[in-house]
Design brief:
Largest sheet: 5 strands, mixed
Strand content: 25-35%
Number of strands: 5
CATH architecture: 3-Layer(aba) Sandwich
Order of helices and strands: HEEEEEHH
CATH superfamily: Mannitol-specific EII, Chain A
Radius of gyration: 14 Å
Helix content: 25-40%
Structural class: alpha/beta
């Protein structure tokens, strides 16, 4: 669902503020930038994929290929932990995340996240 009423600069600021506190790479090749966004009802997110990889400042100094961006609205703290747990569980499922360089495999579990 697209939310055109949300200010993209404010959304980016929320993500950058959280990222400034601690890098959000969570596993080799995977990052989960997330932040709280006042006035948002619920949670919105996007998945990004790069075959070449992007420099992300990961603790392992490896390129990130798969990015789960999450903006959380008021009162979404419990859901936030659930979503992060699901993403980390995906990372452990053999064949799903190790195959993320193949576009079709990385999206096969998308509906399972939320």
């Amino acid at each position: 669902m697209v939310k055109p009423e949300l200010d993209p600069v404010e959304m980016l600021t929320a993500l950058n503020n959280r990222e400034a506190k601690m890098n959000t790479s969570v596993a080799p090749g995977i990052a989960v930038p997330h932040g709280y966004f006042r006035g948002l009802d619920g949670i919105i997110g996007a998945v990004g994929f790069s075959r070449q990889g992007i420099e992300y400042g990961s603790h392992d100094n490896k390129l990130v290929h798969l990015v789960f961006m999450i903006l959380l609205g008021d009162g979404a703290q419990e859901q936030h932990l659930h979503i992060l747990s699901r993403i980390l569980t995906l990372e452990r499922i053999q064949g799903l995340i190790p195959g993320y360089r193949s576009k079709s495999s990385c999206f096969s579990g998308g509906s399972w996240l939320f």
